[in-house]
């Protein structure tokens, strides 16, 4: 009892003796001992909804302690540009969450998305850019298009085996077509849909994508780690199994046929060649970079599922997409492809509107040095949350933001228009390098699905605000072949 009273006294002294804030200190709620201000996030489906509510009290930039971690939240486009573009060099770090380390072999810096910025990471992005950000007029863009078209026969064969007219799990088929598009494009390798190891790895990738999009108390309260021992073992197992699959089923095959005197056949060849040429690169960098980009198929599969959820809720959207795809393919004489995008602006706009309404969070940044935001002091090590939920849902940025309206991304003449404040893939030097692949393959998969099927749901669909991921076992859909 005396020890408990003593602890309470110490905490009270700490509470009331904390230094007063100066005019340059970021305003924000006063933290509680141990948990900081985590209690203020309760009652919201996503922390970013709470951040938006708190910004109405403390302003467009405010501080908040989550556990013992000092954080700053920026809520308007001007401040977000300052963090991501004008002072991008000051905010090149990522949060040091235990989960991130578990997912990437004990060191989150193995991941391009979750690493701190460095010259090595700049080199790794440079290797990937040609393949993961193909320009419209490039040979790589042609390759993306060809891969997309070639995989559609297998995809439609898989869909034909589902029970039509009944509720069924569509997500596994969507993930497998996306996975094979990625492995074929990046590794010149694809897998039968009934390959059990392939199915298992696609599932593990999806589990990890859902995991990355979730927040856990242990991220900010590391003393809870013993409670999460089983969870940490599970995510480490997923990552290890994926790595072993990539090594045995992809990389070993490439190494045995690689000709170092020829041009690289694909992204995997380019990585292996660079390993021989650059003394700063090691084997770990190569396998984790390939894993990073192959995992991008999960983002596409989940984006397609969230788009289908919107289409089910708004059947008029599906009809307009079907009209576009029927027109460009001469009523189904061929599959849609990437070069149809210009003639199918409503389909592309539907994907953009899905990204807006999903408002998936941008990975938090961390101040890599003592710096400022809008004249406010920000100390090294401070986690900075980019509240793109407000950018995507705020009335200051959109008319009728609660409505699903793909036409908001269309000009009067029917072209695509994207406001500057629409940054679903972030911006600045840490923008998502694979965003073009995401938009390309999601377009092909969505257009092909609606070309061949009418889609509805008997039991409704559930998506999560502020999240482009849906659970691995998510809503079921009813597919009816179109006549």
TrEMBL record:
Gene3D superfamilies associated with the record: Cytochrome P450 (1.10.630.10)
Residue numbers binding heme: 432
PROSITE patterns reported for this sequence: CYTOCHROME_P450 (PS00086)
Needed cofactors: heme
Molecular function per GO: heme binding; iron ion binding; monooxygenase activity; oxidoreductase activity, acting on paired donors, with incorporation or reduction of molecular oxygen
Taxonomic superkingdom: Eukaryota
UniProt GO cellular component terms: endoplasmic reticulum membrane
Predominant location: endoplasmic reticulum
CDD domains: CYP1_2-like (cd20617)
Keywords, in A-Z order: Endoplasmic reticulum, Heme, Iron, Membrane, Metal-binding, Microsome, Monooxygenase, Oxidoreductase, Signal
Signal peptide stretch: 1-19
Membrane-topology descriptor: Peripheral membrane protein
Compartment annotation: Endoplasmic reticulum membrane; Microsome membrane
Protein function: May be involved in the metabolism of insect hormones and in the breakdown of synthetic insecticides.
Family in the record: Belongs to the cytochrome P450 family.
Listed name of the protein: Cytochrome P450 307A1
Source taxonomy: Eukaryota, Metazoa, Ecdysozoa, Arthropoda, Hexapoda
């Amino acid at each position: 009892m005396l020890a408990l009273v003593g602890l309470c006294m110490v905490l009270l002294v700490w509470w009331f003796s904390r230094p007063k804030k100066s005019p340059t200190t970021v305003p924000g709620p006063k933290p509680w001992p141990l948990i900081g201000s985590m209690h203020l996030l309760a009652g919201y489906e996503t922390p970013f909804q709470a951040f938006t509510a708190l910004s109405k009290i403390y302003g467009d930039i405010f501080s908040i302690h989550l556990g013992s971690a000092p954080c700053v939240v920026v809520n308007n486009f001007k401040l977000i540009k300052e963090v991501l573009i004008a002072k991008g060099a000051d905010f090149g770090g990522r949060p040091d969450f235990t989960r991130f380390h578990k997912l990437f072999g004990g060191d989150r810096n193995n991941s391009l998305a979750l690493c701190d910025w460095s010259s090595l990471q700049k080199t790794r992005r440079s290797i990937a850019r040609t393949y993961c950000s193909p320009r419209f007029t490039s040979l790589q863009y042609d390759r993306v298009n060809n891969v997309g078209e070639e995989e559609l026969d297998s995809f439609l064969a898989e869909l034909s085996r589902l029970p039509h007219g009944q509720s069924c799990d569509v997500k596994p088929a969507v993930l497998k077509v996306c996975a094979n598009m990625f492995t074929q494009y990046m590794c010149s390798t694809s897998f039968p849909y009934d390959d059990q190891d392939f199915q298992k790895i696609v599932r593990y990738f999806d589990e990890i994508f859902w995991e990355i999009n979730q927040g856990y108390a242990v991220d900010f309260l590391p003393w809870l780690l013993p409670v999460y021992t089983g969870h940490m073992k599970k995510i480490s197992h997923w990552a290890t199994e994926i790595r072993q699959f990539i090594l045995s089923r992809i990389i070993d095959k490439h190494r045995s046929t690689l000709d170092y005197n020829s041009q690289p056949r694909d992204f995997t060849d380019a990585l292996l060649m660079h390993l021989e040429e650059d003394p700063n690169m090691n084997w770990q960098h190569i396998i984790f970079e390939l894993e990073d980009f192959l995992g991008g198929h999960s983002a596409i599969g989940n984006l397609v599922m969230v788009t289908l959820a919107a289409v089910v809720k708004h059947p008029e959207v599906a009809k307009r997409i079907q009209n576009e795809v029927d027109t460009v393919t001469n009523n189904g004489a061929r599959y849609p492809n990437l070069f149809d995008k210009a003639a199918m602006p409503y389909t592309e706009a539907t994907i953009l509107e899905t990204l807006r309404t999903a408002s998936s969070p941008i990975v938090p940044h961390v101040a890599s040095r003592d710096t400022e935001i809008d004249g406010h002091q920000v100390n090294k090590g401070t986690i900075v949350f980019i509240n793109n939920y407000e950018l995507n849902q705020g009335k200051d940025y959109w008319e009728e933001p609660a409505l699903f309206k793909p036409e908001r991304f269309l000009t009067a003449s029917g072209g695509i228009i994207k406001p500057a404040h629409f940054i679903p893939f972030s911006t600045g030097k840490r923008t998502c390098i694979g965003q073009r692949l995401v938009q390309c393959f999601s377009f092909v998969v969505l257009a092909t699905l609606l070309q061949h099927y009418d889609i509805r749901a008997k039991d409704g669909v559930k998506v999560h605000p502020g999240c482009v991921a849906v659970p691995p076992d998510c809503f079921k859909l009813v597919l009816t072949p179109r006549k």
